């Protein structure tokens, strides 16, 4: 077992015009967070921060392949203040100065780049790859931190390949979309930078402002609305910022009321916004997203109104501000996010894994003829399915309880296999973590899929987390899944939940965290691979589960976007094969039903995904978007799980946009563009389509699939 021999993968490490504009032939009824500079360049005043000049005594950087060794050997500061006492540490193709708060390098075109972090924070871990593209890492930051950059010469442009928090990068969780454990940040201004093809910007902990020059095909930008900011007057570390910056940021970030948690720890937490996101602040004033498994509920039909007696326009809602001059995707066909989701199912009668295409509008699913079914040797009754990550590549795991085989999720290409402990056939995955389960042993284990495929046998992730056994009285039924944007797995269990029938078991769901943020002595948090019980809850109404579960109640569990999907096989009390109930992951509130048009009852389901987003520029935001602006956008997939207040471009082509709901639309010219929204008071104005019952989609990410091994 192991990888296929041919698998040579290796492990990784013109300006916009954001001005006040008329919307749908009239003035925008919301305040504009951008201003017009005296020079006439319509640029966000917050991005006009001064960048300190580099140290003239900066040392020559070593070659790129020495970067990892240098980062590991560099002494870590005991506090953010101590960072400034550390000598310059070099990275591949660049040099750190000012205690990791400045990074300087030269682009292949001869441009001199100075990258600075202002306020609390560090750029430790940042490097430049052999192609000259920047890999930005940041840490020890808070909601008033800003990263700014200047490019002098070389055409005034530079490439950026990735942006992650150092916490996320060190945890080897680059595909994670929860943001939990990472620090928040007020602004990342890279207005002279081009996001390269296949690049990633992941700031899921929370951000106020993001600026880019362009984004290329196959790239992805994954953000979360920043909530819970304390007023600048309450924080001494914000006094070094200009009043304009602090005032502008206050119009963007939802301000929550701080509440102290713990005793003598110096940690406070705040929350606010469209989805509660607990933010903890430590004694170093580093702010970290501490949790985020809350279900999203649409903001509904919002109407902004002026506050008496102010006669002026109402303020815009707090939310992310995004400015990208050019979006250059490459989509042969514009996807419909409501009809393009895929999910895998296992048929024990034929021993085959099939792929289904889902129509979320109609609540139907049909066999996807573009995918050749996968035959499982011996047609075992118990086979678990999960969508996992082999590096960045999305793979289908087919686990028969002795061997887990991996296939490219889009093309079905075999990619190798690894041995698993006997009986551990059930499987489920989050964005970055994979878990297998043995219902008979009542146990969960974590799996490092990439390392396991390399070794040909199960390898646990870093830290070798201990197996997990549910709390006393709960028994695993074999259903297990993950959802995007969460570090939890969701398992079906049997237990005597009904106190009136203490001798009988009923169906319930047990939510288990896979990774946990813990305080870092140097400030902020670290992500530790460790199981933990999050929630146990009975299904409502009570559903009996007799001993041995002869009816296979809730053994086939997967997920569709943010909803847990349970293949009940029952509709209106009568058997209907492959009737899939969608429920909220914490409340278990019904989110709809999907019937898969297939005669044999499927014994397991995978998580869902969207293979036809390859080539798109994905912009996925969890929470409110105050505004997204640019000049041109082609091949853009903009998905906002929240209130999309304003989208403003000169021209948009071959793109799809989703908001819950969409408010203002200002697109001067468009071709082949769909805009979907929940209910809005202005109905279809601006070319927006109201979709009744529209549920949250995503979070979305690139599959990084290819037909070759």
Descriptive report:
The protein is mostly beta strands and 709 residues long. It folds into two domains: 2-13 and 15-331 and 613-690, no CATH class; 341-609, Neuraminidase (6 Propeller), CATH 2.120.10. A hairpin with a 4-residue loop joins strand 20 and strand 21 (364-367). The radius of gyration is 25 Å and the shape is globular. The two termini are 15 Å apart.
**How far is the N terminus from the C terminus?**
15 Å
Identify the overall geometry: globular
Let me know the average pLDDT: 84
Number of helices: 4
Q: Find the structural class using helix and strand composition.
A: mainly beta
Using the CA coordinates, give the radius of gyration: 25 Å
Give a nutshell description of this structure.
Helix content is 4%, strand content 41%. It is mainly beta and 709 residues long.
Task: Walk me through the topology.
Blueprint: E1 2-3, E2 22-23, E3 26-27, H1 67-73, E4 90-91, E5 94-97, E6 102-106, E7 112-118, E8 127-128, E9 134-138, E10 146-152, E11 158-165, H2 166-170, E12 185-216, E13 220-225, H3 243-250, E14 259-260, E15 268-270, E16 279-281, E17 287-289, E18 320-328, E19 341-347, E20 352-359, E21 364-367, E22 374-375, E23 384-390, E24 393-399, E25 403-408, E26 414-419, E27 426-429, E28 434-438, E29 443-447, H4 449-455, E30 475-482, E31 488-495, E32 506-519, E33 525-538, E34 557-560, E35 563-567, E36 570-571, E37 574-575, E38 579-584, E39 590-596, E40 604-605, E41 617-622, E42 625-629, E43 632-634, E44 636-641, E45 644-659, E46 662-677, E47 688-690
Parallel strand pairs: 9-11, 10-12, 11-12, 12-13, 12-18, 13-41, 18-42, 18-43, 21-39, 41-44, 42-45, 43-45, 44-45, 45-46, 46-47
Antiparallel strand pairs: 1-26, 2-3, 4-5, 5-6, 6-7, 7-10, 8-9, 14-15, 15-16, 16-17, 19-20, 19-40, 20-21, 20-22, 23-24, 24-25, 25-26, 27-28, 28-29, 30-31, 31-32, 32-33, 34-35, 35-38, 36-37, 38-39
């Amino acid at each position: 077992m192991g990888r296929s021999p041919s698998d040579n993968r290796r492990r990784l490490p013109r300006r916009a015009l954001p001005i006040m504009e008329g919307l749908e032939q009239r003035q925008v009824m919301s305040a504009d967070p951008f201003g017009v500079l005296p020079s006439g360049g319509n640029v966000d005043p917050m991005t006009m921060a001064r960048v300190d000049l580099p140290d003239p005594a900066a040392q020559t950087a070593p070659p790129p392949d020495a970067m990892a060794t240098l980062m590991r050997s560099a002494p870590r500061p005991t506090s953010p203040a101590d960072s400034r006492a550390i000598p310059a540490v070099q990275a591949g193709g660049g040099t750190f100065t000012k205690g990791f708060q400045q990074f300087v390098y030269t682009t292949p075109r001869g441009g001199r780049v100075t990258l600075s972090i202002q306020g609390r924070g560090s750029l430790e871990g940042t490097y430049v790859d052999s192609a000259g593209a920047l890999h930005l890492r940041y840490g020890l930051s808070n909601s008033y931190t800003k990263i700014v950059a200047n490019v002098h010469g070389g055409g005034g442009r530079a490439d950026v390949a990735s942006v992650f928090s150092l916490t996320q990068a060190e945890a080897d969780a680059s595909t994670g979309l929860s943001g939990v454990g990472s620090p928040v940040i007020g602004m990342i201004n890279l207005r002279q930078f081009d996001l390269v093809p296949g690049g990633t910007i992941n700031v899921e902990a929370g951000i106020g402002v993001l600026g880019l020059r362009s984004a290329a095909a196959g790239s992805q930008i994954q953000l979360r609305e920043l909530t819970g900011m304390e007023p600048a007057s309450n924080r001494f570390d914000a006094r070094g910022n200009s009043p304009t910056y602090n005032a502008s940021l206050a119009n963007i970030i939802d301000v929550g009321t701080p509440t102290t948690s713990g005793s003598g720890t110096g940690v406070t937490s705040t929350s606010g916004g469209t989805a509660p996101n607990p933010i903890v602040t430590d004694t170093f004033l580093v702010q970290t997203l501490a949790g985020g498994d809350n279900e999203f509920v649409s903001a509904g039909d919002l109407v902004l109104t002026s506050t008496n007696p102010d006669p002026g326009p109402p303020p815009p809602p707090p939310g992310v501000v995004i400015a990208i001059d050019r979006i250059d995707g490459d989509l042969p066909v514009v996807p419909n996010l409501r009809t393009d989701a895929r999910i895998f199912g296992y048929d024990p009668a034929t021993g085959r894994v099939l792929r289904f295409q889902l129509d979320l509008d109609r609540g139907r699913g049909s066999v996807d003829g573009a995918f050749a079914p996968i035959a499982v040797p011996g047609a075992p009754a118990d086979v678990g399915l999960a969508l996992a990550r082999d590096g960045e590549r999305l793979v289908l795991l087919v686990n028969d309880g002795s061997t887990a085989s991996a296939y490219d999720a889009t093309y079905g290409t075999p990619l190798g296999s690894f041995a698993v402990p006997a009986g551990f056939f059930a499987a489920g995955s989050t964005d970055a973590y994979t878990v297998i389960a043995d219902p008979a042993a009542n146990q969960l284990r974590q799996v490092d899929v990439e390392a396991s495929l390399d070794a040909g046998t199960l390898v646990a992730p870093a830290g070798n987390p201990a197996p997990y056994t549910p709390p006393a009285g709960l028994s695993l039924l074999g259903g297990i899944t993950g959802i995007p944007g969460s570090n939890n797995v969701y398992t079906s269990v049997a237990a005597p939940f009904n106190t009136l029938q203490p001798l009988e078991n009923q169906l319930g769901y047990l939510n288990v965290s896979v990774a946990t943020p813990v305080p870092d002595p140097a400030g902020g948090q670290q992500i530790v691979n460790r199981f933990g019980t999050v929630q146990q809850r009975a299904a409502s109404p009570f559903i009996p589960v007799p001993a041995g579960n002869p009816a296979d109640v809730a053994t086939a569990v997967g997920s569709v976007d943010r909803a847990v999907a349970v293949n009940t096989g029952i509709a209106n009390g009568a058997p209907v094969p492959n009737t899939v109930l969608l429920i909220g992951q914490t409340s278990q509130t019904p989110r709809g039903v999907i019937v898969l048009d297939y005669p044999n009852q499927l014994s397991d389901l995978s998580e869902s995904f969207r293979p036809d987003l390859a080539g798109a520029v994905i912009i996925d935001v969890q929470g409110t978007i105050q505004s997204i602006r640019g000049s041109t956008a082609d091949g853009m997939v903009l998905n906002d799980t929240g209130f999309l207040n304003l989208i403003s471009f000169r021209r948009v082509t071959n793109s799809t946009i989703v908001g819950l709901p969409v408010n203002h639309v200002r697109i001067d010219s468009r071709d082949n563009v769909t805009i979907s929204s929940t209910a809005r008071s202005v109905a279809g104005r601006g070319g927006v389509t109201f979709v009744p019952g529209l549920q949250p989609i995503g979070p979305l990410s690139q599959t990084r699939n290819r037909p070759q091994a």
